[in-house]
Design a protein that fits this description.
This protein is of the alpha/beta class. It has a domain of 183 residues: TIM Barrel (Alpha-Beta Barrel), CATH 3.20.20.190. 34% of the residues lie in helices and 13% in strands. It has 10 helices and 9 strands. Strands 1, 2, 3, 4, 5, 6, 7, 8 and 9 form a 9-stranded mixed sheet that branches. α5 packs parallel to α6.
């Protein structure tokens, strides 16, 4: 019995030692990889301000008014829009799963035609954060189509948040964007890695944000001290605040920096909770409140002009 336990102990010790040696070897091998900086006009900025859905402190999300006001706050804002497909194959800007969260309609975007969606009031349930009033109901705000968005801001940089995952929809979107000259101006974001990879096949010069699943796997590898071999293949990594330290460990922050990725903070208003260590790592902020972000990061944002949008209709 003692001999059996002794042999079992030896086997366990050898197995653990072998696993430790393997992890050290993988970690060392990963650190031999040399990375080049992201080559893209946006990567040349000292700090990037991404306005998610526009300026939600003064206008309903994803409306022309919200985007226009984001550019008034900071002309070099990168405009982020979530796009969804309608029942008749058109593409509109809308961030919610249900229309009743913002409009006077009901149901999902994908269950309605573009004509039906254009009849909705895009500011119906927007409550002004300062006055508490529903003062945008009488402005005639409509949901924007992707074409209207791209035409309205022909020189602006932007983020397209692609939340659908079905291959035929992704193929339709790729075909729709093929007629546009967008190199140097676009970042693609999606919760689905296969969507990012498929679009990247067609547009390799665009920037891509890491999907949550890929970042989660990388974080697990970081906890095993083998972050150096994690598969972070995209250009941009997004982090959120967690008690001021973010949802990415310091080890992963160092690895992201070593790989010369662009780290963006995703936060709307609690900027005062940002720690010095995380602040030193981030190269931009994605927020629905560009007014608050500009106030907090004023010293890091370039005080330069940018392409202004047309006046609000």
């Amino acid at each position: 019995m003692k001999e059996a336990l002794f042999r079992l102990g030896i086997i366990s010790l050898v197995s653990i030692s072998g696993a430790a040696i393997l992890l050290v070897a993988l970690r060392t091998l990963g650190f031999t990889q040399i990375y080049s900086p992201v080559r893209h006009p946006l990567a040349e900025r000292d700090f990037i301000l991404i306005a998610k859905g526009g300026a939600l402190g003064s206008a309903p999300s994803h409306t022309a008014l919200a985007f226009d006001q984001a550019l008034e706050i900071y002309p070099n804002s990168v405009l982020e829009a979530t796009i969804q497909r309608t029942a008749d194959g058109e593409w509109v800007l809308f961030e919610h799963q249900k229309l009743e969260l913002q409009t006077d309609g009901a149901g999902r975007v994908g269950n309605h035609t573009l004509a039906e969606l254009k009849n909705l009031n895009a500011g119906h349930y927007y409550q002004d954060p300062n006055s508490g009033q529903f003062q945008h109901r009488d402005l005639g705000l409509q949901l924007m189509t992707l074409d209207e968005f791209l035409d309205r801001y022909p020189e602006q940089e932007f983020v397209l948040n692609v939340e659908m995952r079905y291959p035929f929809m992704v193929s339709e979107l790729i075909g729709k964007l093929s007629d546009r000259s967008l190199d140097g101006r676009v970042i693609i974001r999606s919760p689905y890695s296969h969507v990012l990879r498929e679009i990247k096949k067609h547009y390799p010069r665009w920037l891509y944000k890491t999907d949550p699943a890929t970042l989660f796997r990388a974080s697990i590898m970081g906890s095993l001290y083998i972050e150096s071999v994690s598969n972070i293949w995209t250009d941009i990594v997004l982090t959120t605040l967690g008690e001021g330290e973010g949802d990415i460990s310091n080890r992963m922050l160092s690895e992201i920096k070593r790989r010369k990725k662009i780290l963006i903070l995703d936060e709307d208003k609690n900027f005062s909770a940002l720690s010095d260590s995380l602040s030193d790592h981030i190269q931009g902020v994605a927020t629905s409140r560009p007014d608050l972000a500009l106030e907090y990061f004023a010293d890091r944002l370039e005080d330069t002009g940018g392409p202004l949008s047309k006046e609000v209709d």
